[in-house]
Amino acid sequence: MATMPGHGLRHVTTMRPWLRTFRSSTSLASLPSHFTEDSEQAQPKTDKPSSYFPKRGQTLELVCESLAFKGKGMCKVADTGFVVMCDRALPGERFIGRVTRRKGNYAEVTKVKTISPHWDFVDAPCEYASYCGGCKTQNLSYEAQVKAKEHQVHELIIHFGKFSQTELESQSIMKPIVPCEIQFHYRNKMEFSFGSQKWLPRESLMDRQDGSDNYALGLHAPGFFDKVLNVDKCLLQSEPANMVLAAVQDCWRDPQLGLSPYNVYSHVGFLKHLMLRTGRNVKTGIPELMVNFVTSSYKPELLQPLLGKISAIPEVVSIMNNVNTSVGNTSLGEMEYTLYGKSSITENLRGLTFQISANSFFQTNTHQAEVLYKLIEDCAGLRGDGSEVVLDLFCGTGTIGLTLARRAKHVYGYEIIPQAIADACLNAKLNAIQNATFIQGDLNKIDESFGNNFPKPDIVISDPNRPGMHMKLIRFLLKLKAQRIVYVSCNPATCARDLDYLCHGVTEKGIEGCYKLKSIQPVDMFPHTPHIECVCLLELS
Ligand SMILES: C[S@@+](CC[C@H](N)C(=O)[O-])C[C@H]1O[C@@H](n2cnc3c(N)ncnc32)[C@H](O)[C@@H]1O
Prior knowledge:
With 541 residues, this protein is of the alpha+beta class. It has helices at 142-159, 165-170, 239-251, 300-311, 366-380, 399-405, 418-430, 471-480, 492-504; strands at 2-3, 10-13, 59-67, 72-77, 82-87, 94-103, 106-116, 189-195, 216-220, 228-230, 271-280, 287-295, 316-323, 335-341, 344-349, 352-357, 389-393, 410-415, 436-440, 459-462, 484-489, 515-523, 533-540.
């Protein structure tokens, strides 16, 4: 392990009209808040600026026009063009909404009653679909979901990326979205929370009980950090994972066991989270499951009765206990204990074996990750003669870089989380890959010396998290001038902004763009949720 001078990085070898108003400024801080969670500064503008503003508590009859980013329904108030956003309103749906809050120059409403359903209504198979924060669009046919996602990417690329419709069309830049073949049971990881306050829908509030009847294990209701929607089964996770969830639900409230959920106010209580991860035995292909209890202290004797029940489920090969004594609500433990079986599970991705521990990052939809990584490989276009250098930015546990290493001369991966770097090195070893170097460091804090420790790459892969790339990294890439950049994004708004910078430059900062956008490929990794992944190919112009 070496330290890079200058930046302290460690080397470890192994078309909606109102959108147009945003065109003038697309810095991260100026993206509208419903396109990025990172800003509250710029908000959607209505067609005609007006003094009209609905009052808080006022009810309005509305028709949802389209789905905006994050899956909120975009509607306009009749005669005024005033924009309101409504969670779970779907295109074509006519409904009554109650104004809950003002956000800049638009308002948010909650749906009170549907007058007539949307165009592509389907019955949601999950009983929690109307409340759960996990899935928001189960009531929309899958074809309509992917169409809406494709449309959002298209709009953002035009309005934030500043690419013209003609350019996108004439050069076939915008590719049709790749749907996910498996629309349920696709998640290999779910994290449920234990809570001392059960979230109940409005109509059931009168049924609220006290004591352990109010305990819940499930998902946080949207907007409530302290209330948990009790979930007995989640249609997004695997069947064996649902068996474990049912087994825990069956007994954890039993007063004889002395188990209590952690209370986020009093900070008293034992059980914080239940994390379920599904992998595969790489030799047999049989699913294998890791169960991880996140608790506020280390008291394995309290978990013993649960262990007996869970370990009887044949797919369970690992039961872990992450102890997190902090008042925060994260699942990352300060200490980790193996209570049963092994401390990690395995998964296969593009012919490689990956070892997954309780806290390591791994693509959550393995099936669609195969599709995504194949697209990345195709975009990277490695000649396969082992002569090219790949720079894998935001490499996580090294999965993308390692899948490319087989055809490259060398892969250099950069990532902020030390544990992910350790996993990347382990994964390289596990697959006998020796031409990969993983480096821990913060890509938002690079300086002039960044780049001195690796040769000029032929291909850059950049897969940032939601805020996208820092301007320092954009500057670096524009100076580096690698022949090809494959930009993988989980946020099409910040992706569009970064593509704009890389291709068109940033005039006010005197930065010139030098890339040409060759293709944008949206991929649906998470059916029924608002998330959209994109793979973009840029070439030196
Ligand atoms: C979307 S994930 C991509 C992971 C990986 N490429 C993959 O496909 O599994 C983004 C990664 O960027 C890392 N990251 C976030 N901010 C970073 C920063 N400032 N510097 C370096 N890495 C960062 C995260 O820890 C995460 O692993």
